[in-house]
Every structure is written in structure tokens, then in C-alpha cells.
């Protein structure tokens, strides 16, 4: 719930960096959930858990697609505000270069279940 609250706050503040950090916190919690499921085969075999896991995977894919779309839009914006004739409007109106949404390799990595459980 803390991670979801941080995501909501970042969305309201329109803070891309905070949103990325909050989504990583949420992803970490989901990784721990899946790690626990690995330790309990009967849970992994549960139909509802399998549906949950499938839904989460679909959501992660959708989020990755949106991040890619966002970065593409930012890239187009950053290029256009530097090109003529767009710069004639962009500069006086204060349009500035925007940062891409970037994540470290560690943030993108899969959860290492062996490291979590020491097996």
C-alpha cells in the first residue's frame, strides 16, 4: 500500500523521477511476492494465483510499453524545440528540454530467487 500511495503522489505531482522510483518500489514488492510463491508449490498451482501472476506480467509489459512511448515523446519534444521554426515559439514560451525516464540495470533485472532464499 505504501508503494501504491507513492505512485499516486508522484502522478498527482507530475514528477516523472518520483513515479519511476515508486514503480520500482512496487515492482520490488511484487518480486518478493513471487519469491514467496516459489517456496510454496501449492500456491503456485492455485488457479487464482496463476491468474494474478498472469495479470501482473501483462501490467508490467504495459508499463514498459508506456515508458517506451513516453521516452519517444520526450525525445521528439527535445529535438523539436531545437529545430527551426519550432524554436521560434519554444524559446519565448519557455519550453525546456525534458529528461528521459531511465532505469538502472539493477532496477530492470529479474528477481534472483536463489539469493533471496539462500538456496
Automatic annotation (TrEMBL):
Its main location: membrane. It comes from Thauera phenylacetica B4P. PANTHER family: PROTEIN LEMA. It is found in: Membrane. Gene3D superfamilies: LemA-like domain. GO terms for cellular component: membrane. The keyword Transmembrane helix applies. Coiled coil: none annotated. The keyword Protease does not apply. Keywords: Membrane, Transmembrane, Transmembrane helix. InterPro entries: LemA-like_dom_sf, MamQ_LemA. This is LemA family protein. Belongs to the LemA family. It is a single-pass membrane protein. It comes from the Bacteria.
